[in-house]
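User: For documentation purposes, I need each entry recorded in a consistent format: the amino acid sequence on its own, followed directly by the corresponding structure tokens. There are two entries in this batch. Please keep commentary to a minimum and don't merge the entries.

Assistant: Recorded as requested. Entry 1:
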Amino acid sequence: MLNSYALVSFKSTAASLLKAFARSVPHGARRALTAGLSERDADRFELLSYLAQAAGVDGFLVSGDYGSIQSSSQDTKVLRLYAETGRFAHRTNELLTAFFRDPAPATYIDIGANIGLTTIPVAQFPHVSCLAIEPEPTNYQNLVANVGRNCPHGNVRTRQLAVFREAGTIQFELATDNLGDHRLRLTQDVGAFQEQDRRVITVEAAPLDAVTTDLSLNRVGIKIDVQGAEAFVFEGGRDTLARVGLLILEFWPYGIARMKADPEVILDVLESQFATVALGVDEGAALSAPATALEATRQLRELMTTKAHDPYFYVDIVATQHSGAQSK
């Protein structure tokens, strides 16, 4: 249980808060209000989030395909999707579980683990050693709780830090509702989401190669989703990335450009170390047919040119390494 954390079942809280809210409006308006909310799940969840925060309820516990998952009552993106569908990042999790289904010893590294919804499915395989990394304090506390509740094999380690090109501390900006959009603060330029006005905290940072020195690195799969800072992960993780058999990476031109990161760091590694690359526009779409790394990086360079000012566009990269490269 989190320190001073008022954690309640989402379903029971939803019912009680909606009843309380309905009692507060005129009787004649209740039927229309209830009908409208029942037809609009997103508005219903956001209303519950607002009422929960007003009532001092800090978190919800939601049941779904990956078990009982807790998150902040402010989480109207990640937790809401899990509450409404029972799953999260389904395509990513399907790819990961397919890769790790072979019973040989393996390692999974989840960079940007958030509250654990892309760690917990993999951790159901006892032969996979998992490392889940998340820098934001509230997300990290929920990650630890969710792993403890849903991962019975004791095969998950967690680290609270930002993976960066060098060790030290770094500023970190906090999103208010999309708790998967916290980011490194590397610029104070005006942003499409008013990022310049976000609250900033300081977090520990370390390069990936320093974080993985005590891992066995057998058959490595890695997911990297750090909101535009992926190039900095690559800069500090070349030795680890050389061992990766499956790489799933978010490529967000707007976020990369805003951080003034160099996408060529990513593209050079893809070209030199990976045999095939498939692209997916969003989690709900099918992946493209696997292409050579050179073909894929040509597309990615074009996207950096055409989509750098579109804050809503991103593409997932799914790369598989050259045969035998993991044995280095």
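Entry 2:
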Amino acid sequence: MSLPALKESPVSPINILLIEDNVGDVELTVAAFEELNIIHNFHNVRDGQEALEFLHKEGTHAQAIRPDLILLDLNLPKKNGWEILHNIKQDSALKAIPVIVLTNSRDDKDVVMCYMLHANCYIVKPLGFREFVSAIQSIENFWLHVAVRLP
């Protein structure tokens, strides 16, 4: 007895919220995703207050989409990454969204604090483009292919 073939579902774009204030790091992240041909919709907010407005669909972000994945820098103006992470993980409507801390800090205290606040992953930004692409590929492999996304 043969099993029926499974229908291949069309690849839907991943909605990624990039919370990053450094223009160079935003461009680097977008370039890395493009290099890997990852189908995505990027939404970038550049400070902590705007991040919360986006996530809570307030003000100019009233029509914002719910992200499938959040890439969060720690050093942000207005509200820092720890405040954003705390807010996300305390909100029942948001806490299931994977949050990947993508930052320059190698400080053990930062790593511990992020995991205490329930970050899903902590990645130190690599310095070179090839290494950065490799880090993004690791994110893609696990979070977009291995881990099951929320429906």
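Summary note for entry 2:
The first strand starts at residue 14 and ends at 19.
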